[in-house]
């Protein structure tokens, strides 16, 4: 029997699979299941949740988090027993709701791994146990529910199983927009295998479209036999006065429909009534329920033939589990085994972002699918380790979303490099967008040594939005949405190098300043909720970031020039304006305006040569002068050795942060500190003061660590909607995992390993404290004021966490294509034998890397003293292990590296 203990996550293998007892006693839980062909959804412990392909194609009714405990029209599997009693194998009946939190509550357990979910439930009184395994095959758009019923009693049991899957079968927009009217479009057919729903059309206020998709629910017993009868509509299934928790069809054994029946214009249910089954003591019976959508009946027939055989279902489940397990190809070994398994989920989360984008899960009930610009680049950070093969193509294609004015497309279509014009002319500029591409490209080049990518020719995106979103060109017409150039009296698509794209992005951002000679905030930066300071707001936080970018871009240009023996590049002649030196706000504004004018339409078609050494000097000069300006203007001195950098100016032109002797009036934000450290604006002494201030004003261990900001005690309508949120929720003072992880990353990058570890470890501890976080393994977008994890799975924080663990904590990183190892592990991270390890792929080879620390020394006090590769000693470079690419290329597929520190 299933134990009744609750309140913790227990890992059950070394690949992140886990179990949780009595999971239905925790609210808001859901679990992602998806394939690679577009079908995606989620399941709750009681099989709630939804299922869809895209915004227009929801098989099950769309749900937000509040629907998870409010909705009763969930996936269900009923058992009608010979004594007249009824039991739901998913726990969704009126009696089971009444028995919740009492001694009569079912024993229940969820076990789950990457893209599969098993709900186990026992009815002790009836002596029955049900196991419901849910998954989506990798290459087929169907959800499979495999239901096994076992008789645990000493007597034979007679059961009549009834599967009930409500079919929504339309666009998510129809949840409240013409819900009843669109049900009138439904054409329901009963075939021997199940229920088909094919609406005649889909429509909204934009127009009417003939529908070609068929939604379906099919079912089979373990011998491949079809259901004996059906309940095809909501009215037929729940009955007059009934509900999905107490349907008349089940409780009162109401008549059902036979195959061949057709019904029009009603809400649909995939109600499948199977033949009576007698289970002897210990005997099991397995049923398969298929839920999906297809473009034609032939596809449904193929799926039906394949999965009516239960052996094929088991084979598909095994393949699905192995497929996603193999995708997570980074493994960690530390003294904390639970942390090692937690990291499996951190590594898996970027894959979920690739599948789901930032929509289609209950908390992520905004947007209509796809990912944002920022997501395109940050997800590449982890995919460089997980799925490196396609990353180069992704990077090159993504640069095609950059406009000549330095902004970028914000509507991103399906497929690689597909950017869509904003047909509604809504011009919103996130001023941080130009920061991320360079950071991702730098990691890629260091991993691969591929400096030639900088001279890849890529087109620019073009639509009606010009002058960095300040103007709309109402006369714009360009079906391809590509920047054109006038050449020989013809219009041709202009292509420039990736290096040119980077220059335009970073320099236009640098010159777009406000009154304090700090970069304008515009619509927002990474914090979307700083959206009410468009006229006068300034993002000092990302000014630090761009100062760092200019420095890094200069270094990259010098390395590229030396590595590829290139002295100059050609750029569009219009870019010459950006290379003039401007210092004051007025000069920068005037320079930027002049450049904007030259690129608002077609380019002239001429190119000029730029000396790379001169260009690098120019960028370094801009970075250093900007850094000094920011240091002199933005540092805030606190008390008792604390201090920090201001992060923003509001729309009233006031600095947002300040120190006050009354701590309640002190204002501090984490974002500015992250980028001041990361961008090399903060000195080591200032970092020490920042960490003291952050520990004093922002740190709260019980809810995950470092909060985004102190309580401003003000609804700042001159800053952003975040201040309308309750303090401690989302962007207003929550522990926002993304920025907390970047804080840790920045600290590690500057040599503050102990402080960086504190940021990462507190997030881990909070995430895995199930009694408080109430989430399955992984890192959520943020922790609320009471420590609950919110918006799980789809967060860029996971990419940064994985990146930090690999490249900073274990110190395994690329160095111009070579493999460099320089660990910064704390003594507490090594196991009892003084070992820690990481396994990962690099340059197409597998490396198992072990760090030995026999003296249990602390990070910052040890150096690498010896190292071996596949049993042979290998030399060191200034205390680091660097394995040259030419050696790596000659290695076999599996390799062992041992590093000893003293």
TrEMBL record:
The keyword Glycosyltransferase is assigned to this record: yes
Keyword RNA-binding (UniProt): no
GO biological process: carbohydrate metabolic process
Residue ranges constituting the Glycosyl hydrolase 94 supersandwich domain according to the UniProt record: 66-309
Pfam family, one: Glyco_hydro_94
A GO molecular function held by the record: carbohydrate binding
Keyword annotations from UniProtKB, A to Z: Glycosyltransferase, Transferase
Record domain Glycosyl hydrolase 94 catalytic: where: 323-462, 494-559, 616-810
Protein name according to UniProt: Cellobiose phosphorylase Cbp94B
Lineage: Bacteria, Bacillati, Bacillota, Clostridia, Lachnospirales
């Amino acid at each position: 029997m299933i134990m009744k203990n609750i309140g913790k996550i227990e890992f059950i293998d070394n690949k992140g699979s886990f179990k949780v007892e009595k999971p239905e006693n925790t609210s808001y839980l859901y679990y992602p299941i998806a394939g690679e062909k577009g079908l995606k959804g989620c399941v709750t412990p009681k099989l709630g949740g939804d299922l869809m392909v895209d915004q227009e194609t929801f098989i099950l009714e769309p749900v937000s988090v509040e629907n998870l405990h409010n909705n009763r029209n969930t996936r269900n599997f009923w058992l009608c027993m010979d004594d007249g009693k009824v039991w739901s194998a998913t726990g969704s009946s009126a009696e089971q709701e009444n028995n919740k939190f009492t001694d009569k509550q079912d024993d229940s357990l969820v076990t789950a791994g990457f893209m599969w979910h098993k709900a186990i439930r026992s009815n002790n009184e009836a002596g029955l146990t049900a196991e419901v395994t849910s998954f989506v095959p990798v290459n087929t758009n169907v959800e499979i529910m495999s239901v096994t019923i076992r008789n645990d009693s000493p007597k034979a049991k007679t059961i009549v199983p009834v599967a009930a899957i409500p079919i929504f079968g339309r666009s998510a927009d129809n949840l409240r927009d013409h819900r009843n009217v669109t049900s009138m479009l439904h054409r329901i057919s009963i075939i021997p295998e199940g229920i088909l729903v094919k609406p005649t059309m889909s429509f909204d206020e934009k127009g009417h479209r003939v529908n070609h998709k068929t939604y379906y629910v099919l079912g089979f017993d373990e011998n491949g036999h079809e259901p004996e009868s059906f309940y095809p509509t909501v009215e037929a299934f729940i009955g007059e006065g009934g509900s999905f928790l107490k349907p008349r069809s089940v409780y009162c054994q109401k008549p059902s429909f036979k195959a061949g029946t057709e019904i029009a214009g009603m809400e649909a249910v995939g109600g499948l009534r199977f033949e009576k089954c007698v289970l002897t003591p210990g005997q099991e019976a397995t049923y398969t329920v298929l839920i999906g959508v297809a473009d034609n009946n032939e596809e449904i027939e193929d799926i039906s033939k394949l999965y009516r055989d239960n052996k094929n279902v088991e084979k598909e489940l095994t393949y699905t589990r192995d497929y996603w397990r193999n995708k997570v190809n980074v493994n960690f070994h530390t003294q904390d085994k639970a942390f090692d398994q937690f990291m499996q989920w951190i590594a898996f989360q970027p894959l979920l972002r690739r599948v789901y984008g930032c929509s289609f899960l209950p908390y992520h009930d905004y947007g209509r699918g796809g990912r944002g610009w920022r997501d395109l680049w940050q997800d590449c950070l982890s995919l460089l380790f997980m799925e490196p093969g396609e990353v180069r193509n992704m990077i090159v294609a993504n640069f095609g979303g950059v406009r000549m004015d330095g902004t970028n497309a914000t509507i991103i279509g399906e497929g690689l490099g597909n950017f869509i014009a904003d047909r509604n002319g809504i011009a919103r500029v996130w001023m941080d967008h130009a920061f991320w591409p360079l950071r991702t490209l730098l990691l890629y080049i260091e991993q691969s040594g591929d400096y030639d990518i900088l001279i890849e020719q890529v087109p620019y995106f073009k639509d009606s939005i010009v002058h960095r979103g300040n103007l709309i060109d109402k006369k714009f017409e360009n079906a391809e949405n590509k920047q054109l150039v006038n050449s020989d009296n013809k219009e041709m698509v202009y292509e420039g190098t990736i290096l040119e794209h980077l220059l335009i992005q970073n320099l236009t951002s640098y010159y777009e300043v406000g009154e304090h000679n700090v970069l304008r905030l515009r619509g927002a930066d990474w914090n979307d909720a700083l959206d009410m300071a468009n006229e006068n707001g300034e993002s000092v936080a990302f000014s630090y970031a761009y100062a760092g970018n200019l420095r890094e871009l200069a270094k990259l240009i010098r390395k590229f020039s030396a590595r590829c023996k290139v002295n100059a590049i050609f750029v569009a002649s219009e870019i010459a304006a950006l290379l003039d030196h401007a210092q004051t706000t007025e000069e920068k504004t005037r320079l930027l305006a002049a450049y904007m004018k030259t690129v608002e339409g077609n380019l002239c078609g001429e190119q000029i040569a730029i000396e790379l050494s001169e260009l690098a000097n120019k960028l370094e000069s801009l970075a250093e002068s900007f850094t000094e300006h920011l240091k002199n203007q933005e540092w805030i001195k606190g008390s008792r050795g604390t201090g920090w950098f201001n992060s923003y100016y509001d729309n009233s032109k006031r600095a947002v942060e300040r120190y006050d002797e009354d701590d309640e009036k002190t204002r501090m934000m984490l974002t500015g500190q992250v980028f001041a450290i990361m961008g090399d604006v903060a000195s080591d002494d200032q970092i020490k003061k920042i960490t003291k201030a952050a520990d004093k004003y922002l740190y709260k261990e019980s809810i995950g660590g470092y909060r985004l900001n102190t309580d401003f005690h003000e609804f700042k309508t001159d800053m952003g909607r975040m201040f309308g949120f309750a303090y401690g929720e989302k962007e207003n003072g929550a522990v926002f995992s993304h920025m907390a992880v970047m804080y840790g990353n920045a600290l590690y990058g500057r040599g503050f390993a102990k402080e960086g570890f504190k940021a990462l470890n507190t997030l881990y501890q909070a995430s895995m404290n199930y009694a408080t976080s109430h989430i399955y393994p992984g890192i959520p977008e943020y922790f609320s004021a009471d420590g609950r994890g919110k918006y799980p799975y789809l967060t860029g924080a996971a990419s940064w966490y994985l990146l930090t663990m690999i490249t900073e904590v274990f110190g395994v990183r690329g160095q111009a294509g070579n493999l460099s190892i320089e660990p910064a592990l704390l003594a507490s991270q090594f196991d009892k034998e003084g070992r820690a390890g990481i396994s990962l792929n690099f340059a197409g080879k597998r490396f198992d890397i072990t760090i030995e620390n026999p003296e249990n020394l602390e990070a910052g006090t040890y150096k690498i003293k010896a190292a071996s590769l596949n049993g042979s000693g290998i030399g060191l470079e200034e205390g680091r292990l660097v394995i040259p690419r030419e050696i790596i290329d000659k290695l076999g597929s599996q390799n062992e590296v041992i590093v000893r520190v003293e």
